[in-house]
Design brief:
The chain has 17 helices and 14 strands. It is α/β, with parallel strands linked by helices. Strand 11 and strand 12 form a beta hairpin. Helix 5 runs antiparallel to helix 6. The model has no long low-confidence stretch (mean pLDDT 92).
C-alpha cells in the first residue's frame, strides 16, 4: 500500500497529519544526547516543514506544530515525571497530568511558529528556507524567555557535533538553530521542488560556512592548565536529605577531597544538604585544610541564608583565598521557587528547600585557585546569555548540579550537551561536577575531555585549560541571532506575492 503525503491526501486526513507530526517530533529526540544522531533530527524537522508547506490553513499548520512539539517534548522531557513522582512524592496520576501539561505548554511554541508561517504569502522556496526557520527560531527563543523560560531541546543542540556548531561562538545556540532549520528547509526543497541545484548549493554554503567558523580560535590560552578534581559522591536522591545518611555523605566528600592533590576541588550542588550556618565548623575546616594543603581552593555546593530569612542555593569557596560565595540566580519553577498563586503545590510535592531566593544578577567570578571562575548551578547553564554575564573576566566555567532528581533518564546526557554548547558559545572550558553523573570536563570547542560514568562514587582529575578573550556571542548575546531573524523576515516580506494589478 502506498501512502501519499500530497496536499490533497494530508487535507483529507487530519489523523494522518497528526500521526506524522507526532512521530516526527518523537523521532527528532534521536538527534540529542545520548544518541547524537543529527541527521535524524534534520529529517524530522524537514518532515514538519513538509506538513507546514502542505497545510491548507494556518489552523492546520498550528495543529501540526503542536503535535510535533508534543512528540518532541513528550519523549525528550519525560524525566519531569520521574522527579515529581519518584522523588517529589506526587501521586502518579497527578504527576502524569502535570508532565503532560508541561509538554502541551512547550508544544504551543512550534504551534505558534506553524500558525505564523502559514500567514506569509511568499514563494514556496522562500517560505521553507527563510520564513519557517526565522519564525521557528524566534518562537524557540521566546520559549526560553517567557515565564522564566524553558529552553531545553532547542534545535541547535542537536547540531552540536555537525559543522553548524561553528555558528555558536558567533551568535549562540539560536544561530545554530537558525542554520539547522534552514538546512531542514533546503532538504525539503531538494525532495519536493525543481530545479535542485539552488537548494543543493545553498545547503553546501551553509555547511561550509559553519565548518570554516569552527576553525576560528575566538579566545586565547590564558596560562598553564589548572589542576582540578571534580567529586561525584553518588548519593541517591532518596537518601540525600536523610538525617541517618548525613554523616556518611559528609565523610564521603571529605575523604574524596583529601585524596586529591588538585589545586581546585569542586563538589556538586547541595553536596552538604544543610544550611551553611548549621554545618559543623570543624567539618568546614577539614574541607578547607584539604584545599590549603594543595595551595588551592574548594567549591562547596551548600544552601545558605541571611539574617532576614532569605535562603539561597549557593556555592561557597573554602581554602587559601578569602571566602566567597555565588548564589543561584535562575531558579527552577516549582522545584526551587513557587510562583505566586501556586502555594498549594507545596501540599502535593515533598521537595526540600522548595522556595529559594534569587541571587543578584551582577555577581562577579570567584577569584579562586589562581583563576577567575564563573560558577553556575544546575539548570542555569541552559541560559547562554546569563552564563556570558561573568565574561570575559572569567577564565573558566564551573557548573555544579544534582541531576539525581531525574534518575536514570535522558536528562543527565541532555544536560551535558547543553554544557558543551555553553563552552562553544563562550570559548571557555567547562567543569561540571554532579552528584550522580554526568561529571565531565569540556574544552572550549565543545569536546568532552574526560568524564565519569554515572552512578559511581569517584573523582575526576583533569588539567583544565584556561582561556581569555571574548567570542562575538559573549559581546552581543542573542541579539545577533535575533537580528538575523529580523533580516530574514524583512527580506521575505520584500519577496511576498502581490495581488495582480487590475
Amino acid at each position: 500500500m502506498r501512502v501519499s503525503f500530497s496536499r490533497e491526501a494530508l487535507a483529507r486526513s487530519p489523523r494522518l497529519r497528526a500521526a506524522l507530526a507526532l512521530a516526527a517530533g518523537a523521532a527528532s529526540i534521536f538527534g540529542y544526547s545520548p544518541l547524537d544522531l543529527f541527521p535524524i533530527a534534520l529529517a524530522a524537522n524537514a518532515l514538519l516543514v513538509h506538513l507546514w508547506m502542505r497545510a491548507d490553513t494556518p489552523r492546520t499548520a498550528a495543529a501540526s506544530g503542536f503535535w510535533f512539539g508534543l512528540g518532541l517534548f513528550g519523549a525528550g522531557v519525560s524525566w519531569v515525571y520521574v522527579s515529581m513522582n519518584q522523588f517529589g512524592g506526587m501521586a502518579p496520576p497527578l504527576a502524569a497530568v502535570a508532565t503532560l501539561g508541561l509538554c502541551a505548554y512547550l508544544a504551543f511554541f512550534p504551534a505558534l511558529a506553524g500558525w505564523l508561517q502559514a500567514r506569509w504569502d511568499v514563494p514556496d522556496g522562500v517560505r521553507a528556507t527563510v520564513v519557517i526557520p526565522a519564525l521557528w527560531t524566534f518562537t524557540d527563543w521566546l520559549r526560553g524567555w517567557l515565564l522564566t523560560g524553558f529552553p531545553w531541546l532547542a534545535p541547535g543542540y542537536a547540531a552540536i557535533d555537525s559543522p553548524l556548531a561553528g555558528f555558536a561562538p558567533l551568535a549562540g545556540v539560536h544561530a545554530v538553530s537558525l542554520a539547522a532549520l534552514s538546512c531542514a528547509g533546503l532538504v525539503w526543497c531538494l525532495a519536493c521542488t525543481r530545479p535542485k541545484w539552488p537548494a543543493l548549493a545553498a545547503l553546501g554554503a551553509i555547511l561550509a560556512a559553519g565548518a570554516a567558523l569552527r576553525t576560528v580560535e575566538w579566545t586565547a590560552v590564558g596560562g598553564a592548565p589548572l589542576s582540578a578534581s571534580l567529586l561525584q559522591g553518588n548519593i541517591p536522591q532518596s537518601m540525600k536529605f536523610s538525617a541517618e545518611r548525613y554523616a556518611h555523605m559528609l565523610e564521603t566528600y571529605a575523604r574524596l577531597a583529601e585524596e586529591t592533590r588538585a589545586r581546585l576541588i569542586v563538589l556538586p550542588e547541595t553536596a552538604v544538604p544543610r544550611y551553611l550556618d548549621r554545618v559543623d565548623p570543624a567539618y568546614l575546616e577539614r574541607l578547607a585544610a584539604a584545599a590549603k594543603r594543595n595551595a588551592g581552593d574548594l567549591l562547596l555546593g551548600v544552601p545558605t541564608r541571611n539574617a532576614a530569612g532569605d535562603y539561597y542555593n549557593s556555592v561557597v569557596s573554602l581554602g587559601t583565598s578569602p571566602r566567597q560565595a555565588y548564589h543561584k540566580v535562575h531558579l527552577v519553577p516549582f522545584g526551587e521557587f513557587i510562583p505566586p498563586g501556586f502555594g498549594w503545590v507545596l501540599r502535593v510535592l515533598t521537595i526540600p528547600l522548595a522556595d529559594f531566593s534569587r541571587g543578584a544578577t551582577d555577581q562577579r567570578p570567584l577569584a579562586v585557585a589562581g583563576e577567575r571562575i564563573a560558577v553556575n548551578v544546575c539548570y542555569e547553564d541552559a541560559f547562554g546569555e546569563e552564563i556570558a554575564r561573568q565574561l570575559p573576566q572569567a577564565t573558566l566555567l564551573v557548573n555544579v548540579s544534582n541531576v539525581a532528581w531525574f534518575g536514570d533518564s535522558l536528562a543527565p546526557a541532555q544536560h551535558l550537551q547543553i554544557a558543551r554548547m555553553r563552552s562553544l558559545e563562550t570559548g571557555r572550558a567547562t567543569l561540571t561536577a554532579t552528584n550522580t553523573g554526568i561529571t565531565a570536563a569540556i574544552d572550549r570547542d565543545g569536546r568532552v575531555l574526560a568524564r565519569l560514568p554515572q552512578f559511581v562514587e569517584a573523582k575526576l582529575e583533569v588539567a583544565a585549560p584556561v582561556y581569555t578573550g571574548a567570542t562575538p556571542y559573549v559581546r552581543a548575546g542573542d541579539i545577533l541571532a535575533l537580528g538575523a531573524v529580523l533580516v530574514m523576515l524583512a527580506a521575505a516580506w520584500l519577496l511576498r506575492r502581490r495581488p495582480a494589478a487590475r
